[in-house]
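Lecture 7, part B: from sequences to assemblies.

Below are the input chains for today's worked example.
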Amino acid sequence: MEYVIEMLNIRKEFGNFVANDNITLQLKKGEIHALLGENGAGKTTLMNVLFGLYQPEQGEIRVKGKPVKISNPNIANDLGIGMVHQHFMLVDKFTVTENIILGKEITTGGRINLKKAEKEVRDISERYGLAVDPQAKISEISVGMQQRVEILKTLYRGAEILIFDEPTAVLTPQEIKELIQIMKTLIKEGKSIILITHKLREIMEVADRCTVIRKGKGIGTVNVSETNPNELANLMVGREVVFKTEKKEGIPKEDVLDVKDLVVKDARGIAVVNGLNLTVRAGEIVGIAGVDGNGQSEFIEAITGLRKAESGSIKLNDNELMGLTPRKITETGVGHIPQDRHKHGLVLNYPIAENMVLQTYYKKPFSKNGILNFKEIYSKAKKLIAEFDVRTPSEYALARALSGGNQQKAIIGREVDRNPDLLIAAQPTRGLDVGAIEFIHKRLIEQRDNGKAVLLVSFELDEIMNVSDRIAVIYEGRIVAVVNPKETTEQELGLLMAGSNRKEAGEGTHV
Amino acid sequence: MSKRLRNILTPLIAVVLGIIVGTIIMLVSGYDPVAAYTALWNGAFGDVYYTGEVIRQVTPYILAGLAVAFAFRVGLFNIGVEGQFIVGWLAAVWVGVSFDLPKIIHLPLAIIAAMVAGGIWAFIPGLLKARFRVHEVIVTIMMNYIALHSVNYIINNKLNQGSSKTGMIHDSASLRSPWLQEITTHSTLHWGIIIAIIGCVFMWFLLEKTTRGFELRAVGFNQDAAHYAGMSVNKNIILSMVISGCFAGVAGAMEGLGTFGYMAVQGGFTGVGFNGIAVALLGGNTAIGVFFAALLFGALKIGALSMPLEAGVPKELVDIIIALIVFFVASSYIIRIVLDRFGKKEVK
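Predicted structure of the full complex, as structure tokens:
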């Protein structure tokens, strides 16, 4: 059997921390090989070793059977290895072509020959069915299209082996379908692909084989046709994973959140929340389903005081929240797991402990007369870290140093611990692996069972269906339907989210 | 290599590199570097008189450095330390000249006046930044010119006691001490250094130990997260500028109440405020770092005065060395990369 890439018994250490411990990955020519592991399992480290960004302490890399030493990304490029990064490396103000040729410009007499470059880009684009306009500006094309530009960039540089790092994390369902098609075309044209992901569904759909790593150790390689999502998940997490979160029937009580005729404008002055009405009761989880951009973010920002609402009313246990500062709203009893944990949720340059008291630092026992009590802060953090299974070297580590899943657990720990009457969770599991998702869902349900109100916003229908007691569908800034998850289907929700009214969408009982 | 060690090593290496390149420049220009550095050292520490002068010079550098560093920790770039320093100087001298009070009231009052003047001068750019998002760099630069020319006008037209300077401040407002001058064989050393050290402790304590400092640093790192956490971003921006200006104003008081005892019409900027930027940069924007960086800059400035006479080397060469050190600190990225390489090999 011919392998194009062999990474044999790779070991990579950072100080005392072993990121990769004896991992072996062999890529056959013309296959899509998935690399599966939890957040922080060492997938990216392994790929950075292959790409020449890190040097392994032990192990051997072979390309087409020959041992090689990849000491920098240029060598990786020369060996035909290309990487499609999760965070795109594109110059916004440049055109597609300019981005692709950057660093490998075609020149005639010292001037860039843009015509020739454009033609080449167009040729490659057509050959692989990428449908990219070489003259479009990066800032004017969609995220999915930008990703194709990244793919084109590697192909332009003659890549035979493409590494995709979590390629679907930023894509819409439609774009994911297209990407999968593109990957299949690439294979047909003789390329080989390593797909880094933790989405089992995608692996089942496109991958030929799958290598699983767990906590830095290689667990093994399986043929996808001979396995199933359950087995993969168990391999990845190291224990049985429950996909459908177990929960008892909720016992909703009095109204906690009562939103009436809310109007919120976005930065452009357009009313993106336009007459929204919604109640959330104690002891229930209300899921907001909707396509991104229908006012979800602005709605949450208005409740939490981050954005000024134009009109309407937001009542929490009969206290009006409109016009209050974020601090007052927090103190009234609102917890908020923000959509963007790096932008809002954490001060990345603060130790994880100080992030744990981000809203409560001014209260006893964390401070007295304006002086911080670090002993209390750190012992609190220690407790939360243990309780919420935040994997961190210590409570002194900067939040920046934690993996995404653990950052999210830290935020959830902080918000749940404040025991708010209303917990708002915006996309709480975005980019997380199944183990972390399961954990977070359990915590949300736990809050509900403790008689708290939970408002969940998610673009993942699975999540909404699975966790919510009621589903409110948001469309163009309004709640257009409230349905019972047990009596609806993904199809019906999909239609409602697209703006069809209930009759067209089919039967669904009002709750 | 730990981050802490790296943060300490980086400025040290920058200093060494600055001195090495300075040596090369001297060799190329035909001067004797050994004689020059000996003169520099002796000119700074060779005699208690010189050491007294160094400490006197270090005092305003520390406070100006703290001013820049404090604003920087909250994510603001206060280029206006020079202007806040000038208005602080004038305010201190004005109180020193105009009132006749017991020392226990007069001296603190003069220092507080300088603090308030510097604070007000920095409040304006802070307010404009918070309210209208006007960039503080532009406003503070303009405020420097307004300070310089307004202060000159006031000295010339309101407080002129002949030859374009104010009268001497009363003894009750003076930081000078016959005893300090005695033990340093009549240097201009005054009690200001104590105030500068208190300033360092204050900044460290405020930023690292108080809830206010927690907010200020959070705003500096991530305004969105600070807002989310219920902190008032605008309030903290204004506050940090005002505190920064207070430090700068007190730096001015050191000159007015200690070194000179009066204020003369300024032909141009004093440079103390701008040196404060370099001091803060070299000191990594920490209180302790600023202290040592100011010590270095003060020693270089005073030591340089002996170089022309002792070694025949123009004192401008020290300015070149200072510039080189700042250059190497600013390009510390390169030093960091080298240190990282070095550090990695050690692990192996």
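Note for the exam: The mean pLDDT of chain B is 90. Keep this in mind when comparing with the next example.
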